[in-house]
Design brief:
single chain, 191 residues, mainly alpha, two-stranded antiparallel sheet, globular
Length: 191
C-alpha cells in the first residue's frame, strides 16, 4: 500500500508540488529538483490500514490506535511545517514533548533500567522516570528529524532500526512487538 501511495504522490506531484515540495537550494539539500515532503501522510494512512487488518486482534488494533493518537501532535506539526515551511522549531519541539508524554501515558511505557547505578536509583522515582523517558523519546524524534533534514534518509535509518527490533523480538519471542514492528516496517518500505 505504501508503495502505491508513493507512486500516486510522485505521479501527481505537478498538481501539489508547489504546496508539498521541498526547496532544493541550500547547504543541506542534496536533491536536484523539488521533492515531495509528505511521506508522513503515507505512513499514517498505512498505519490506519493496519488497524483494520488487525481489528480481530484486540491488543494490536488497540495499540495501533493509541500510537496514532499519540503521534498526532508531532505529525500535525511536521505536516504543517512541510506545507507552510514557517512553523517555529520551538512549537515542533513542544509537539515532540506532547507526543512523548502521550506515548508514555497511553501505552504505559517507561524506561526503568539503564544498567547505570545512579540513573537506575533515580528511575525509582516516577517524576524522574517520566522526564527521562520523555527526553529519550524526544531525543530520538529530533535525531530522526536531523537525519531527514540533512539527507532525507531517515526512513532507511528507521527501517534498519526496525529490522534489529524484529530480530530481537523474534529471538526473545515477543510476538506482539514482533507483529507491530513488521507492520510498521511494511508501512515504511514503499515510502
Amino acid at each position: 500500500l505504501s508503495l502505491l501511495l508513493s507512486f500516486f504522490i510522485f505521479f501527481t506531484f505537478n498538481f501539489h508540488g508547489k504546496l508539498t515540495g521541498d526547496n532544493y537550494i541550500g547547504p543541506q539539500k542534496i536533491h536536484e529538483a523539488s521533492t515531495p515532503r509528505v511521506g508522513g501522510v503515507i505512513f499514517l494512512i498505512c498505519t490506519f490500514f493496519h488497524v483494520f487488518l488487525t481489528s480481530s486482534y484486540d491488543y494490536l488494533s488497540e495499540r495501533f490506535l493509541l500510537i496514532i493518537v499519540a503521534i498526532l501532535p508531532v505529525f500535525c506539526s511536521g505536516i504543517a511545517e512541510d506545507i507552510s515551511k514557517s512553523i517555529k522549531p520551538i512549537w515542533r519541539l513542544a509537539a515532540s514533548f506532547l507526543t512523548a508524554f502521550l506515548l508514555i501515558e497511553l501505552l504505559n511505557i517507561q524506561i526503568i533500567n539503564t544498567d547505570i547505578a545512579l540513573i537506575d536509583q533515580l528511575l525509582g522515582y516516577y517524576p524522574f522516570t517520566l522526564i527521562f523517558t520523555m527526553l529519550s523519546i524526544v531525543a530520538m524524534t529530533q535525531a530522526s528529524n536531523i537525519i531527514d533534514g540533512l539527507n532525507g534518509l531517515s526512513i532507511m535509518t528507521t527501517i534498519f532500526i526496525l529490522c534489529v527490533i524484529i530480530f530481537l523480538t523474534h529471538k526473545f519471542n515477543d510476538l506482539n512487538l514482533l507483529y507491530m514492528s513488521l507492520a510498521l516496517l511494511s508501512c515504511l518500505l514503499g515510502v
